[in-house]
Amino acid sequence: MLKAKVLIVGAGGLGCPVALYLACAGVGTIGIVDYDAVELGNLHRQVGHTESRQGVSKAESLAMSIKERNSDIQTIVHETMFTSDTAMEIVQHYDIVIDASDNVATRYLCNDCCILAGKPLVSGSALKWDGQLTVYNYGPTCPCYRCIFPTPPPADTVTKCSDGGVLGPIVGVIGSMQALEAIKIISKVDGVLAGRLVIYDGQQATFKTVRLRTRRPNCVVCGDAPTITQLIDYTQFCQSPYSESSGKAADRIDTNLIVSCKDYHQHVYTTNSPHILLDVRPKIQFDICSIPNSINIPVDELNKSDNINKIDQLISHDSSLPSMLQKLTNQYHHLILLLILIFHSDCMYREKESNVVIKHIRDGLLGWSDDIDPSFPIY
Amino acid sequence: MKVKIEMTGGLEILFKNQKNHTYEFKDRDTMPLRELVVWMRDTQIQERPELFVEDSTVRPGILVLINDADWELDGGIEYIVEDGDTLSFISTLHGG
Ligand SMILES: [Zn+2]
What we know:
The structure holds two protein chains of two kinds.
Chain A: E1 5-9, H1 15-25, E2 29-33, H2 58-69, E3 74-78, H3 87-91, E4 96-99, H4 104-117, E5 121-127, E6 130-136, H5 145-148, H6 161-164, H7 168-187, E7 196-201, E8 206-211, H8 234-238, H9 249-252, E9 258-259, H10 261-269, E10 275-279, H11 283-288, E11 295-296, H12 305-314, H13 321-331, E12 339-343, E13 357-361, H14 364-372
Parallel strand pairs in A: 1-2, 1-4, 2-3, 4-5, 9-13, 10-11
Antiparallel strand pairs in A: 5-6, 6-7, 7-8, 10-12, 12-13
Helix pairs in contact in A: 1-2, 1-7
Chain B: E1 2-8, E2 20-24, E3 30-32, H1 33-44, E4 53-54, E5 57-58, E6 62-66, E7 69-70, E8 80-82, E9 86-91
Parallel strand pairs in B: 1-9
Antiparallel strand pairs in B: 1-2, 3-8, 4-5, 6-7, 6-9
The structure holds zinc ion (ZN).
């Protein structure tokens, strides 16, 4: 165990339990690659970080947690973006790679990199109540990620944790199982989850293990005559970025569509200007806490005509609303705790072509808690 | 024929937010999976059918299981569905 070298790609909800269990099991060298910093809003699922390490790089923070538990472990912090330029150089120093990433581009990158470098890949993923787990590139008949998913999903079908939410215990379960698979590979015991997929439904409390196809001889990366012999540009291949946090609302929305919590509170909320406060978190989170008089439509259901009608009725008919919502969800699908304001009639934010304006409240509920109502729970 | 359908990984949202469905076709003994999938798209999904079917097969990013095994082991979209089969449609997850 002490000789083993494991690389964890992603120090988030999955990467945290993986790192802690591998450290406690005595895996000699643990590398962590992550470019993000610890944020309060993530602590409910990222159990290797702490309030006091807010703003510290996640890779560094997780390495600290490892050292606190087992000072014999050598930790290697890769505080860099894991991309086609950096991945191969990093991966070659390890025996096993754990895919604990949070986006589809990194998943293809991890796959191809592990095939090319000849490393087993323990892949876990989670969203909302669901988790999935398998091992790639382990044994001659084992399929790779591309054998199963040769074509990436259309970018607008991909829901991310920060939109869809994920329950802490779900990533806890999947991450713990990833650690176990790594330990099994290191100890060369039977029963490694290669060629099989575990599907966990936390809501129904069911596990299912299913048989996957065998390696596809015509696979472009692990097949008999591969056409991918070096890493490609995965953001282009998947039409989506490597990091979901690069999608901070403020970086992607026109600044004139953003309003601060303070401005909203002062000019709209307390003056009772006609508006709707729309909270687009998953329903389960909305049920835990919400701002009085806000309504909830989860972001991935915004396009549904039922919901558009619902808003439509609330603001009296405005024919431009469906197309505005459509445009908004297409453009800004991946926002963190997105709150949208819909103003109408004589509101200060009125726009010429329509009497409805949609604004994003900067920092969402975290900002609300910081600036307006400190008693508002952060979870 | 009767088939059981399971939706997971968020796909259920397209199907009235229900994970489990049973479809019965009284006048049929078998049905090509392609036909079933197109039928599901046309009659069971209210909105955004393109999130389920693309180019008359299941869209990329959805893994299909036939009786708990990867559909590729049974011919993929060319499989002929029989009475009593369970089909699972699993949206692959990327989060973590
Ligand atoms: Zn392959």
